[in-house]
Design a protein that fits this description.
Blueprint: H1 6-23, H2 37-54, H3 57-63, E1 64-71, E2 77-79, H4 80-88, E3 95-110, E4 113-126, E5 129-130, E6 133-144, E7 147-157
Parallel strand pairs: 1-7
Antiparallel strand pairs: 1-2, 3-4, 4-5, 4-6, 6-7
């Protein structure tokens, strides 16, 4: 069984060993500026949200895995190309976010895969229909040589 916290513990172990070598032995250890996987994924989420608002097609292509699948709150299955088309569509037919605030409730890491469960508030519309409300999603991310990509998403509406 894979330990979900292994990456965080290895990161902290490295910091402890650095302090030992530098503090007790007087040996300078070059700093390797590695971010924790959780910090990396949180930065990815922030960047991804900005890319969606800017409707940056090139960045969307890089940040969404080629095999991406979204199951929305009505049960529709959307692939990468359809997702990008919806995001890039001009008003009034495309996706338009006026407000988006995410709270990550759970982040689990399995090597180069991350699974996040979040609750979020959003205001906006799609094809001129309001979709404002509170939602919960489960997203899977894969870390590639070029960085993190969203691989799958399932969104559910949270009843008031």
């Amino acid at each position: 069984m894979y330990d979900n916290n292994i990456d965080e513990r290895l990161y902290e172990t490295g910091r402890t060993l650095r302090a030992f070598f530098e503090g007790f032995l007087g040996v300078e250890v070059p700093k390797k500026r590695r971010k924790s996987p959780k910090k990396e994924i949180m930065e990815f989420l922030s960047d991804f949200q900005e890319v969606i608002v800017r409707k940056d097609e090139s960045a969307l292509e890089q940040m969404i895995d080629d095999d991406f699948t979204l199951v929305d709150n009505t049960g529709n299955v959307i692939d990468k190309q359809n997702m990008i088309e919806h995001i890039l569509s001009p008003s009034p037919g495309g996706i338009n976010w006026n407000e988006f605030e995410r709270n990550v409730e759970s982040a689990k890491f399995y090597g180069n895969v991350a699974v996040l469960v979040s609750q979020f508030q959003m205001r906006g519309n799609f094809e001129e229909k309001d979709f404002s409300g509170t939602y919960r999603d489960t997203n899977s991310y894969v870390k590639r040589d070029t960085g993190w990509q969203i691989a799958s998403s399932h969104i559910s509406f949270v009843s008031p």
